Amino acid sequence: MSRHPRRVTSRVSSPEASQALFEQHVLPEIEVLLRVARSLTRNDADAEDLVQDTLIRAYRAIERFDGRHPRAWLLTILRNTHINRNRRQRPELLRDPEGTSRQLNELAAVDVTDAGVDAGFDAEIERALAELDEPFRSVLQLVDVEGLTYAEAAELLGVPAGTVMSRLHRARGRIRDRLDRAGLAPRSH
Hints:
This protein is mainly alpha-helical and 189 residues long. 70% of the residues lie in helices and 0% in strands.
């Protein structure tokens, strides 16, 4: 028996029932959605827009949701919404190559430094992250920075959990190797 019992009556539902389901399954996941959206968009305003679009889609589909695994369901909606938004933006980016270059430069200039950490270490981490291929960087961002589980990251990226674990292991190894070459890796005792 499911932890989240579902009404099995007619498909027609009251707005109150939809609201109750939305509050039960969706509202507790908003912070996770925001963290993941920020990692996907690398921009707070775009992340908020992405989450808002995701919430609208989730509300419209809440009556069809079976009540199991709300986070995975919402992350799937978020991922698909993000993909659809990027598809719509592509023609505009092709018409404005100058704007495209400017946007890419802005993304590359994201400051991830922490005032309490040595600047040389931070610079080396940034270089190591920039050198990672996107699939490895995405997994590292979602699991190590955003705190998603392997299963959640896998659901969001549309890959098996084993692929997430493999990519994460390789990404961490590449960063560790880079830090070791720079003489900044922590020493084993």
